Amino acid sequence: MKSFHKSPWLIHYDASSCNGCDIEVLACTMPRFDVERFGIINTGNPMHADIFCVTGGVNDQNKDVVKQIYDQIPEPKVVLAIGTCACTGGIFKECYNILGGVDQVIPVDVYVPGCAARPESIIDGVVKALSLYQEKHEKMVKEGRGLPEDPALDED
Amino acid sequence: MSKKTIIPFGPQHPVLPEPIHLDLVLEDETVVDAIPSIGFIHRGLESLVEKKDFNEMVYVAERVCGICSFMHGMGYCEAVEHLMEVEIPDRAKYLRTVWCEFSRLHSHLLWLGLLADGFGFEALFNEAWRIREKVLDMVELTTGGRLISSVNRVGGVLKDITPDMQKAMLDAVDKIEKELKPVANTFLNDYTVKSRLCGSGILSKEDAIALGACGPMMRASGIEVDMRKTGYAAYDNIDFDVITSNDCDGYARCQVRIGELFQSINIVRQAFAKMPEGEELSVKPKGNPNGEYLMRVEQPRGEAFYYVEGSGKKILDRFRVRTPTFANLAPLVHTLKGAPFADIPLLVLTIDPCISCTER
């Protein structure tokens, strides 16, 4: 299990954001910020992912897509709400088609504010998500639902 | 005749950061029909115009899309300014032109990167985005924000570009031009890139007109159309040629956008050379907007309309945006028909889709 929180894989979904935060999530994987040096990979397959990054305030049409992606990610999983819209609905809160935040649809663990959220804050959010990820994993082991960490991986 | 299969594309797909759904009808490996369904990012932001006054609405208009956010804000401001018959200071016009061209630079570089990612050339993807960071640095230096800049207001701009910033911007532009040349060379002359782009997604001149394409998509089909030539902001004082190509395929679209990158750099230099000195950056509009106006702006992806209607109140009656990607969806569906399945992500990318704009 150590390998998971040393190299978490992300999946990103745009749940009705203005594109600003999505581009910043992508910019995190670019040479300037380069999260891949920490082993963080942006994957397209929910079944390979550990961390779910959602941007935008979620509308009626894509709430089911968000739920479906969330259900497909294997346990343990951490959800990041990226950007002010994802946290509360932001400037679009009063719009008729916005549910007002990702937490209206799925449980959110880390809130990353900003309009658009800066790459630095997104990386900070992912780092916070990692400790939560470890906690969730330990809880699963206690409940007898997962394998404990392999001590051999601690030696390096 | 073989059996038809329907394969769903999206809404969550690795090649696009945004959700769009296409039902692809396939016969063997060839797409015979594509049915797009949109609405995954529809927020209904046009309705906010009934709740916010016309000055606050600038910030909503900027958030139509995070990539061309400056131009959305500017398009809205120019529409309201025409409605209220406000003449903005000359310096503000030139400042808007400079920021417009910086947005175009970062948007086209972003697209080049995504295109390279679309055909699996990861090194080129990273290289394009590395150069893009230099553009964003300059936007951040002058406006305070990387993507959402919020420097427009009805009647002018909020921030000035000081001589120091101007020097930094010109230096950055020189550096970008130098670094862009080898990248552009790879896009235009590399064997692998050419083998993916040449001859894919043909949109003939007649089809482009009939289906109402716009922007680089239209120009790549050999039609000279550029809204900057209508002379909004300071474009009437700037000397530039509309870049077109007659190849009508994916390669032509790449060629046009790369040409526009160098053109943008040239426009930035011209704008700084012609920019008048002055302390005044904005004028306070008097009264409330009354009447209607349709503003047309050339965005990186093509022509956008901003329609505003007011009835002498602080709150506008109607705000309507028609964005370029919406116009380009019909040509996209046309180019998808008859294409091999493996080319679909690439063809979707060649129109430079911005779904947030389309659905608002």
Provide keyphrases for this structure.
heterodimer; A: 156 residues; alpha/beta; Rossmann fold; 5-stranded parallel sheet; 5 helices; globular; B: 360 residues; alpha+beta; Cytochrome-c3 Hydrogenase, chain B; 3-stranded antiparallel sheet; 12 helices
Description of the structure:
The complex is a heterodimer of chains A (156) and B (360). With 156 residues, chain A is α/β, with parallel strands linked by helices. Chain A has one domain: Rossmann fold, CATH 3.40.50. Helix content of chain A is 33%, strand content 14%. In chain A, strand 4, helix 4 and strand 5 form a beta-alpha-beta unit. Chain A starts with a helix and ends in a 14-residue tail after the last helix. In chain A, 50% of the residues are buried. Chain B is an alpha+beta fold and 360 residues long. Chain B has one domain: Cytochrome-c3 Hydrogenase, chain B, CATH 1.10.645.10. Helix content of chain B is 47%, strand content 14%. Chain B has twelve helices and eight strands. In chain B, the strands form three sheets. Chain B has a three-stranded antiparallel β-sheet with strand order 1-2-3. Chain B has a three-stranded antiparallel β-sheet with strand order 6-7-8. The longest helix of chain B is centred in the N-terminal third of the chain and has 29 residues. Chains A and B meet through strand 1 and helix 2 of A and helix 4 and helix 12 of B.
Short description:
The complex is a heterodimer of chains A (156) and B (360). With 156 residues, chain A is an alpha/beta fold.
